[in-house]
Hints:
Blueprint: H1 3-16, H2 23-43, H3 52-71, H4 76-99, H5 104-107, H6 111-125, H7 133-156, H8 165-176
Amino acid sequence: xxxxxxxxxxxxxxxxxxxxxxxxxxxxxxxxxxxxxxxxxxxxxxxxxxxxxxxxxxxxxxxxxxxxxxxxxxxxxxxxxxxxxxxxxxxxxxxxxxxxxxxxxxxxxxxxxxxxxxxxxxxxxxxxxxxxxxxxxxxxxxxxxxxxxxxxxxxxxxxxxxxxxxxxxxxxxxxxxxxx
Length: 180
């Protein structure tokens, strides 16, 4: 294990903890910190990251466990769906670790992450919201579709594999500034 892996792991673990106090803001922060490991990997020179995909999936388990701790405080449908989605992704994680086949992550998308943020946002901004059959079905279909699109881009189409995070930031900057 390199010093680089230890630094990235420490950042990811610390970045997962605020969700325990502030579910929505902490959840958003945890996901942003999850993305930051790419930037850290591309800028640090402390021995490298031998198997980034595996490291990332293991570190995902930390923020997902923190999300689960919060979700276990919920009641009813929100809690049951959160636990089910967490368990489903956990199965996918285990299968991925056994096979190292990234396509499995398409079959087991991390819809739990999107569900968690949706429920945390509803608790924050619409605390009296109650899931009904139709709203629940539409919500889960939309969240699953969005997550599948993200999982395909990362693991299926691998559209980001050929560029560094610094290249991606440069492309965003050029787009925002009109190519300057």
